[in-house]
Sequence to fold (835 residues):
Amino acid sequence: MRFAKPICAAALLAAWPALAEARRFALVVGDTKGGAGTRPLRYAERDARRMHAILTRLGGVRPEDARLLTAATADDVRAALGDLAARADQAKARGDETVLLVYYSGHAKDGDLRLGDTRMPLAELRDALRNAPADVRIGLLDSCQSGAIMRGKGVRAAPAFDVQQAQAASTRPRGLVLIASSSADEESQESDEIGASFFTHYLASGLLGDADASGDGKVTLAEAYAYAYARTVGETAETRAGAQHPVYLYDLGGAGDVVLTELAPARGAMVFPPSAEGVYVVLDGSRRAVAEVAKARGDQRRLALAPGDYLVKKREGDSLLVGSFNLGDTPVEVADGRLSRRPLSDDPQKGASGPRWSVLSAGGGQFFFDSAARNGLFPPAVLAGAELGVRDDLGHDLAWAVDLALGGGAATLTLPGITNPIPERFFELTGGASLWRDFAVGESWTVSVGARVAFLYLARTFENHPELPSQNFFTLTPGLTTAVSWRFAERWSAVARGRLNYLFYNVDKAQNLGYAELAVGVDYALGW
Amino acid sequence: MRLAGKTAALALLCACGNLSNEDIAFLEAIPQNQQLHVNLPQGSTSQNLCAIGLADLYANAKSTGDSLNAGVDAILGLVDAIRRVTPTSRDDDSRTWGPFPDHDHPGVQIQAVMFRELDATLTPWRWTFTISASRPPGGWLPILEGEFFRAEASSGIGRITLHFENSATLQINKATDPTFPLRVFYDRSSDPRTVSLDLTSGVNAFGLVSYDYGFAGYADGHGQLDYAFPDPKSGCTIEVTTFFNAQGAGRDVFRARCGTVILGDVNQCWDAGGCLTYVNDPFALTAACNGIAPCVLGNPASCPAGL
Fold:
């Protein structure tokens, strides 16, 4: 075990408010760009989407009470925060207990949240939360130097909250809790291996169930913080940037803890039995980590994941234990006996697993831009072919592929002074090598942009004119390629692809020609 | 930039092939064998019994047509060889094939050059085509010269001259080849379409006597053939003008040229079955006259109308 889970006092406490009793509001913000002087983050938006999904699915936040902002400006955040505060005020006026939670993943620097080219002072956010009308206000900040939001007394860089034990219902907590992923002088780190920031990944894993130290099916704020603190510090200790220490400001009056997620109402679950021991990483269909379970032998752990296909891996010595699981409405037990042993080189996790192979089968057309070239020489053609692609081989989100396509069609050749157009049939063979970069857009969509060098062989015959010889042409064509893919099943994606190519034609006369290829197809991911 | 330059250079080196619309334009201007062939109606199955006799002159016309076609094939055979070869060099308005070594004649080089001229609308209107041969260190001699008008031979006008005299000079001729220039003229621009083979520069080529052979074929199938053949019995040359309809019935007028003496005109008509229906032969040159002159057989009203 690389970390020791802190013993959390909250585990023994009555949790409050229960989800069913409180009206909860959540503002979730993710922004990869921080304007001048910052490098784009890779996973801030994904982190935000994960948190939004968890809060609306397990956190008792109604969809209409949740706001997810990506690539937003500071004014967008202010407006959304004001809107939710107003709704909380209305709910409170109706007698509801209210909780307002703000989550932010993005850049922070020099005391400001950096939202693209706009800024929002941390002090402004802190004051907005402090003054919001909700009974409990929670700020979760995952950004560099985010600890700077906690100026003054009460800031702790401790592994767990000091939560007072509830004495009576009238002592329900009211006030403000701020949790930052790093202290005021630390960087918050992202991990390509897990495809997220360390802090959010472990916070999310905890909220999904691994932080439920009490085993009561509820993850409280204290449990989640304690879990995220321990895992973040432990996992960043050996990184180049050094250990990252989450901090908190706990300013709740009354007693008891705040429940952030309830695991019991969730459909289906992944259950790790008492015999399971070690760190289990749960990957989704795109081989990105969605949760981790770090457990000791003896207790049972339950992850409230959304229904779907998952892969679970666990490192054991110099090998991996890997297994596929389909979550439906009923719990699925994950025991070591259901995992198969693989060499470490077969690590399925994106970014750490080496190359991932896939086969794309596609059909489409080819169209030359020059009308004179389309006249018999390079007529519009129908093409069908396959592409063998390798992702994450040359680098993260980089992919290369080789492809081959066959096609052809019928056309006519019109020549000056020739009475009747000359019919022709043509055959085309093209193949190439591509290099591109994938840009994830949400969980299922990917946009790819890259370059390709291909060969093109074209031959034509004039069936009704036996006196005319068959002709052919061969050349290399450099070009650009772009694609949009949508993953609709664990291994399957629908792909729409476009290419722009340059072709040098020099038989009749030297010509620089351009042509486009458009295709749609289905991509199948090979192996894990 | 260096990478882009290398890529462009690689593309340049790899761009190869014979995919060319302009090559097709050049080839479409060259006439094909069948476009210059003499086509005579074959008529119905020959009757064994004819009231007057068989129209043996029309049978001669058909065999003469076959000989003319063989001559055209021999001429255009040289051109057809070019169709199968990708041009060696291309300019905007010319194509060059070769020089290539002549595998049938060691030491001989052959090349073909074709030029075109465009009108104001950039439509080709005139083409010149020359196949030359050389036996180094000797210079190039034209073996075949052609001049074609219009963009496509199927509706064009042109002439082709086969220079047998140069083939003989270069010693690349066959023993049976004539040794004088042979010319073909054609006009497919209107109805009738005409082809003529001028053998007046010499004697006896392709089994034909020296004559200006001419054929006119109309779209509806009727036509005219002017031809000549030797009559071994009389030692004269029979010069015939034949008119025929699409069904193979026809009439002819022929003369017998015996040295400086011309005997004529003899008129004959026949039906689609190849039987004579009318003979007016003042010299009894027609076999059916049995040597009795003057000879009038049949009824002139039986001659096909409109010819």
